[in-house]
C-alpha cells in the first residue's frame, strides 16, 4: 500500500533541492564553455557567541545524497515549465551525475573558524549545484551536534535523552537531529522514525494526558505500571510532591514485585523538587528509584542544577537542543577557492575566503590538541592532517562507518580538546588556528591579481 | 528509476514520526479499556518576545497526513523488534487509521494566547498518537509564517524573496517554510523543490562563485547576460560600487538591447551603498534598473533601511526568516481537555489548560479586530467564530484550498488587525483575549473536582 504523505513521497528528488540560481549558473557555465575543475570549500568564519568549537556532523548522509544525485522525470518536466531552461539544457540534465572528489574532516571532530569541513573538487557546474544541499545539511547537523555536545558535557556523565522531535523544525531536522545528538553523546531518542532509521535506542515515559484521562493520578499510575512494570512515572500533572507520594503508595502496593525505575519532574523549581522528591523516596526505602528531569532544560540550566547538587540521575532535553536555540543558524559558507588550477577568492568586506586546495593539521601535546594549522594541500606542516579523501569520482571510497563508530570518534576527539574549550565559561582566548605562511603568501598573491583585474 | 536518497525514500511512514511514549500509552489505553472520545487542543500560552500575534500555518499539509495515516510493514517490524510491544498489539496497528473529527482556525489567521488553533476529537489513542506530528508541523510553519508576516510588513509593499533554503533546518523546514512565507506575503522562493511542490514562483540571481570563476567581473557579467538578458547582477564580489560601474559599462555595450533588471547588493553598509549605486545608475540614465538588497536582513534591518530612505526596490531574505531566528521554537502545547464528555486539565504551575471543547469569537469594529472571546463550543458569544470543522471521521470535508486562496485570506485577516499589532514596536497592551464567564466557571468546577481526587 502506498501513501500520499509528504514524509513518504516528496514530489521531487534531492537534485531539485537547489536554488534556482544554481541551475541558471549551470546553464550559463555550459553555454560559455566553463567546464574546468573547481574547488569549493565549506567553512564558517566564526563560532556562534558563547561557543568555543563546532562539532562536525552530517557528512555520511550527504555523501549518500551525492551518490544518488540525479534528476527525475518530474523534476525535468518542472524545469521545462520554467522560462529559464531550453530543451537542449533539459536534455543535458537527464544524465547529470556527480562525478567529483570529496575531501572532508570526519564527522564528530571539533573544528574552528576558516577550516574547510568539506572540500569538493569537481567540474564547476557539478560543484555549484550542490551549494544549497551542502550548506543546509552540514549546517543543520553541525549546529545540532555542537549544541548536544555542550549539553552532554554539562550533564557530567548522566544520561541525556532527546525529547526534541515535537519542537524540531520539521521532519528532517528531527530525524537528522536525533542522529547528530547521538553522535555527540546523547543516550537515546524519543523519536521512533529516528530509532528505526539510525538504529538509535528509543526511550520515553508517559504524557500528562495519560494521567488526566484517568479518574485520578494513582489510577493512571496503576494502569500504566500493569502494562509497563519497569517504567518512569510522570509526577507533576497536579502537584509534584503529591505525585511522588502516590508513587511511594504504589510501590508499597506492589511490594517485592515493584520494578519501577523512577519519577519524572517536568515543571516548577526542578532543583528544589528533586531534593524533596529524593527525600520522600529515600524515606520510603526506594533508593533505587531514579529522578529524571525535563522541561525547558539546556546546558546552562543542567550545569546550574548539578552545580547546586540537585540529585538528578538523567535529563530529558527538548526545545533548546532540537533547534539549537541560542544559535539556530550557522553563518556557514560554500565558496569557490580554485578554478582551472588557479586560486580564487572574494574581496567582499568581512568575508575572507582563503584560496586554493587545503589541508588542516592538528597539533597535540600530551594527547591534547594545542593548535591547528590551515595550509595548502601540498604543504607538509606539523601535526595530524584532518581532511581525508572520502569520495573519488562520485563514489565513496569506503562504506559508511557505523553510527556507533562515529559516536566513539566524537568522544575521543572531544576528549582531546582541552577542558577549557569543552566547558561552558568562555576560555581566556579562542583555540589557536594559524594560517601557514605559504598559504598567507598565496592569498596575498591572488588578492593582487584580483585588484588588477 | 528509483533513488535511495533520504529526501526521496524515508525509511518509515509518517505514523512512526511519533515519540515512543505515544505508542506505549496507546497500548496501555487499549489494555485498560480506555477507548472513549478525547478532545485535544493545540494552543500556545504566550507570544514570543517582541511579537504581537502569530499567523496560523500548516493545517492543510497536516490534514493530508491524517488522511493517509497508517503503519507500513517496515514500521511494524521495527516496533516488533522493540521490547515494549507484544504481537497482539502490533496486529491492532495494522488497521490503525485516524477516524476523528478536526476543528481548526484556518491557515493565515492571526491568533493569540490560549486560543485553540486545532481541536482534535477522536478515540483517545488516535488523538494521542498524533501529538508529536501536530506539534512539530504546526509549530514550525506557524513561527515561520509569523516571522515572514513581520518581514513583509516591514518591506512596505516591496517584494520579499525567500533566499532561506541554505540556512533552513533541513529539507522539510525549507520546503514547508517556502509555503509558509508565500502565505504570509513573500513574493517568491529560490528553492526549486518548493516551487514544484507548491507551485510558488521561483526567483534567483547569481552567486559570487560565478563571478570568481571568470577572469574578471565584467567578463562574468557579459557571459551571464548573454544567457539571461533579463537578469539581476551581483555586484559585491570585489567592490560594490566598482561592480555597479561595470554594470553601467555593460549596459552601454548592450545599448538598446539592454534588458537588465537590476543589481544586487549583498554585503557592506547596504543603506549607503544603495544610495551610491542609485546615483551611479541614474547618472548613466539607467533609472529602470532596480536595486535588490540581501545579506543578513531581517524585519528590523529592513525597517531601518527604509526608514532612512534607502532606495531599495526588493529584498532577498534568508537566515533570519528561514529559522525564525529570534524565536526558533514555539512553546506550543497539545493537551487533553476532555475525555468521555468530561473536562480535563493540568494543574502544573504556570501551565494553564482550559477544559472542554471550545470556540473562539473575534469581534470587529469598523472592520478592525477588537477583541477575541474564548468560550465553550456550545456558547453563543458575540463575534465571528474562528474554529471550523475541517475533517469528519478522518476525511476532509472539503478539498484543500488553493495556496493563493490561503495567501489572500492571510492578507485580508492581517489587514483586519489594527496597525499597532502589525507593526514592530510593541503596542501599549496586548491584543485583548477574554475567556467567557461560563468557560471560567467550568474551569473552576473542574479544578475543584481534581483537587478532591
What descriptors fit this protein?
TIM Barrel, NAPRTase_C (chains A, B), ligase (chains A, B), homodimer, disordered N terminus, nicotinate phosphoribosyltransferase, 2 domains, 7-stranded antiparallel sheet, 6-stranded parallel sheet, 40% helix, alpha/beta, 453 residues, Aldolase_TIM (chains A, B)
Relative strand content of chain A: 15-25%
Please state the average pLDDT score of chain A.
95
Query: Looking at CATH, which topology of the largest domain in chain A would you report?
Result: nicotinate phosphoribosyltransferase
CATH architecture of the largest domain in chain A: Alpha-Beta Barrel
Structural class of chain A: alpha/beta
Largest sheet of chain A: 7 strands, antiparallel
The number of helices of chain A is: 17
How are strands sequenced across the largest beta sheet of chain A?
Answer: 13-12-1-5-3-17-18
Shape of chain A: elongated
Low-confidence stretches of chain A: 1-9
The rounded Rg of chain A comes to 26 Å
CATH class division of the largest domain in chain A: Alpha Beta
CATH-level-4 superfamily name of the largest domain in chain A: nicotinate phosphoribosyltransferase
Count of individual beta strands of chain A: 19
Amino acid at each position: 500500500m502506498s501513501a500520499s504523505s509528504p514524509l513518504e513521497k516528496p514530489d521531487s528528488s534531492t537534485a531539485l533541492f537547489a536554488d534556482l540560481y544554481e541551475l541558471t549558473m549551470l546553464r550559463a557555465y555550459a553555454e560559455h564553455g566553463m567546464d574546468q575543475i573547481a574547488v569549493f570549500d565549506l567553512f564558517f568564519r566564526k563560532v556562534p557567541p558563547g561557543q568555543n568549537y563546532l562539532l562536525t556532523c552530517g557528512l555520511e548522509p550527504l555523501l549518500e545524497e551525492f551518490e544518488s544525485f540525479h534528476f527525475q522525470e518530474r523534476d525535468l518536466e518542472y524545469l521545462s515549465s520554467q522560462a529559464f531552461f531550453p530543451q537542449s539544457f533539459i536534455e543535458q540534465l537527464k544524465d547529470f551525475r556527480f562525478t567529483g572528489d570529496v575531501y572532508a574532516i570526519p564527522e564528530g571532530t571539533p573544528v574552528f573558524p576558516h577550516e574547510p569541513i568539506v572540500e569538493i573538487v569537481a567540474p564547476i557546474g557539478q560543484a555549484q549545484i550542490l551549494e544549497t544541499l551542502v550548506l543546509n545539511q552540514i549546517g543543520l547537523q553541525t549546529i545540532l551536534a555542537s549544541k548536544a555536545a555542550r549539553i552532554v558535557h554539562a550533564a557530567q556523565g548522566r544520561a541525556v535523552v532527546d525529547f526534541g522531535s515535537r519542537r524540531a523544525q520539521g521532519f528532517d531536522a528531527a530525524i537528522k537531529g536525533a542522529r547528530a545528538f547521538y553522535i555527540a553523546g546523547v543516550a537515546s531518542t524519543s523519536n521512533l522514525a529516528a530509532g528505526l532509521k539510525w538504529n538509535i535506542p528509543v526511550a520515553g515515559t508517559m504524557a500528562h494526558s495519560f494521567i488526566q484521562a484517568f479518574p485520578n493520578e494513582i489510577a493512571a499510575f496503576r494502569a500504566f505500571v500493569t502494562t509497563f512494570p519497569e517504567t518512569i512515572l510522570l509526577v507533576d500533572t497536579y502537584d509534584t510532591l503529591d505525585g511522588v507520594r502516590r508513587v511511594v503508595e504504589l510501590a508499597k502496593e506492589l511490594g517485592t514485585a515493584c520494578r519501577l525505575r523512577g519519577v519524572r519532574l517536568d515543571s516548577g523549581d526542578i532543583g528544589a523538587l528533586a531534593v524533596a522528591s529524593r527525600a520522600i523516596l529515600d524515606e520510603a526505602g526506594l533508593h533505587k528509584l531514579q529522578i529524571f528531569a525535563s522541561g525547558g532544560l539546556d546546558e546552562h540550566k543542567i550545569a546550574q542544577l548539578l552545580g547546586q547538587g540537585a540529585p538528578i540521575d538523567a535529563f530529558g532535553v527538548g526545545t533548546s537542543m532540537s533547534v539549537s536555540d541560542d544559535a539556530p543558524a550557522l553563518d556557514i559558507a560554500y565558496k569557490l577557492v580554485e578554478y582551472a588550477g588557479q586560486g580564487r577568492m572574494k574581496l567582499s568586506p568581512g568575508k575572507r575566503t582563503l584560496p586554493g586546495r587545503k589541508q588542516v593539521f592538528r597539533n597535540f601535546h600530551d594527547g591534547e590538541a594545542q593548535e591547528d594549522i590551515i595550509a595548502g594541500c601540498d604543504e607538509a606542516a606539523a601535526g595530524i592532517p584532518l581532511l581525508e579523501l572520502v569520495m573519488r569520482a562520485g563514489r565513496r571510497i569506503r562504506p559508511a562507518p557505523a553510527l556507533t563508530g562515529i559516536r566513539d570518534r566524537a568522544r575521543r576527539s572531544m576528549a582531546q580538546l582541552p577542558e577549557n574549550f569543552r566547558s561552558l565559561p568562555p576560555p581566556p582566548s579562542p583555540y589557536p588556528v594559524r594560517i601557514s605562511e605559504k598559504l598567507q603568501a598565496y592569498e596575498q598573491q591572488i588578492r593582487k591579481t584580483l585588484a588588477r583585474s
